[in-house]
Amino acid sequence: MSPVGLKDMSLKRKIVIIAMVSTSLSLLAACLVLVLNEWITFPKVMERNLSGLARIVGDNSTAALSFNDDKTAREVLATLGSNPHILSAYLYDGKNRLVAQYRSEGEGAVVGPPGVRPSGVWVTPDKVALYHDIRSGQERVGTLYLESDMGEMKARLHGYTLVMLLALAFSVLVSLVVASQLQRRVTEPLMQVVEKLKDIASGEGDLSKRLQVTAKDEIGEVAEAFNTYVEKLQSVDEMKLGLISVVSHQLKTPVAEINGYIENMLEGLTGELTPKQERYLKDMRDIGRDNYKLISDLLSASKIERGVVTVDLKPVSLKQVADQSLRDYEESIKGKGLAFYREGFDREVTVLADRDKTVETLRNVLNNALKCTDKGSITLALGTEGGLGTIEVRDTGIGMGEETLSRLFTKSRVLGKEAGRAGAGLGLYIAKHFMKLQGGDIQVSSRKGAGSTFTLIIPAVAGPEGARL
After folding, report:
1. How far apart are CA 459 and CA 463, in angstroms?
2. Which domain-ending residue is among 150, 171, 202?
3. What is the domain count for the chain?
4. Is 468 inside a domain boundary?
5. How many CB atoms sit inside 10 A of residue 223's CB?
6. What is the DSSP string of 210-221?
7. Predicted confidence (pLDDT) per residue in 324-341, tens digit
8. In this structure, are 328 and 283 located in the same domain?
9. Could you tell me if 348 and 357 are in contact, meaning their C-beta atoms sit under 8 angstroms apart?
10. pTM of the predicted model, to two decimals?
11. Strands, E, within 182-329: which ranges?
């Protein structure tokens, strides 16, 4: 038996098990009733049969007893050998003298004449015995003792048991097949609700889709309630997206202006700065850049959710995309004491992409690598594979486990407990969608403590001779 308890099993298995167990128990109860009835009634049947046989033997022995014909009496008892269940028979005349006897070769027969008793029947678990008075008119001319085993009843009970086991096995098989088919009618609507809830919980659910309600039972009521819940959730989500879009638009411009003023002050346009003032302004510049990126990410995410993001696909050089993306991060990488390596920059690879969105995607990946790497290096590699352009970002940072990887490109981690240094925030969610919109993809391989590798895959354009680069 599996260590998983019934309460932890899937609903499908529960339904199948309940159907099988209930069918088996019902059939078993019916079979037990039949066996019990046979156990109770069959001894009485045997008693009647044995009484009937005693009357036949007695009638055939009347003449022999009346005329003291012992030979004929023995011949009459010898006919009982055709009945395998008769253990013994003793025939007495009217003076209680033993006239003839019969004993089977089986075990359990009475050893020696049992003597004469009044007419009657005795039933034990092993045999049935009776005394029968033989009369000629009103005169008793003899007494017959017959003894039979319970073999017939045991054979019938064994037969019932075999039939019961076969019927039980067949019923379990049939109930398994039927329950497996019928459980789908119950579980499929519920599974749709469960899968939809999982999608919503992961942040990837499409709130515009509704469940098809085909039943009017309790499951149909669950589906109706779920659709109502999703409808309200969609309304709240639309309000949230609208608020984020408005707030982000309102904040983006002043934050950009503040960052510009800070850059001007650092460049000395407002006069000479003391070392302490310069240090404070650099910290403010870093905070301002982070805030500007957060606002930009919120705007991009809200556009993705509202389905208003478009792409302008044109031939773009991977080297130009990489150079433009590195402008904001080379200084930060060096300032953190990390080594930075370039690979494949000497080869010209042209892809069909939206340059701005590809640059933003690569920046988000570089930002994630910078956050997650405290020592070692970051490598940016350009290349091609199977007619596709590739950009790899490899780091020697903290890496990620399977659980984090499974939700890496979703929004579920943005405001959760993982939305710190190890989380990618909205950046990777946006990067994934931007690559998909361009017909490309972004893949990741990582292991805790062993760094991560992000790979941007972008369709390449045809070369001068029509070949894919």
Report:
1. 12
2. 202
3. 3
4. no
5. 21
6. -------SHHHH
7. 888 878 788 888 888 888
8. no
9. no
10. 0.48
11. 314-317
